[in-house]
Amino acid sequence: MEELIRYLNQKSKAELISEIIDLYNNFDSLKDYFSARYDSRQNATLILKYKELLKGVFFSDDYKGSSSLSRAKGIVTLFSKISTMEEHTVDIMIYLVELGVEFTNEYGDIDEAFYSSMEKMFAKALDYISRNALLEKFKSRCRKIVVDTKGIGWGFHDTLADAYYDTYKDDSLLSEPLL
Length: 179
Known about the structure:
With 179 residues, the protein is mainly α. It has nine helices and no strands. The protein has helices at 2-9, 13-26, 28-38, 42-58, 66-82, 86-107, 112-131, 135-147, 156-167. Helix 5 packs antiparallel against helix 6 (86-107) and helix 6 (86-107) packs parallel to helix 8. The chain is elongated.
């Protein structure tokens, strides 16, 4: 880091601007990063872009199990670094879990590692939701994830339901219990 600071301190303002423009032109993730900061209208476009990337991981001809799941988590991580709003980061995290549940319901039982990864992402999303006062905004989507996992093996449904109830404690009077 010190070498980078020394290097940047030697540059003029014009040279720094030129460097940033070169980075912007050569790296899509930097375009997304800067777009999220200087043009708030781009946030909706960025969310759609990253959701399409996630969907492509699960619903393309080249799904490769754990390597694809690693790619999906990488997309979420990258988006969380780019995004300027916690709400958008939660949206992408929840979307990943929704896709995992949809994938399972479409293609059948996966493996324990897959479900464990989805459970961790769901728990992480619920933590973000709680810490950022987004409970009502994401409640129906989180609940639907749990409902849609009924009958899925490896204890997946039970783990998600427990995490949901730990976050949404007031949802215990439902006419249709999740467990």
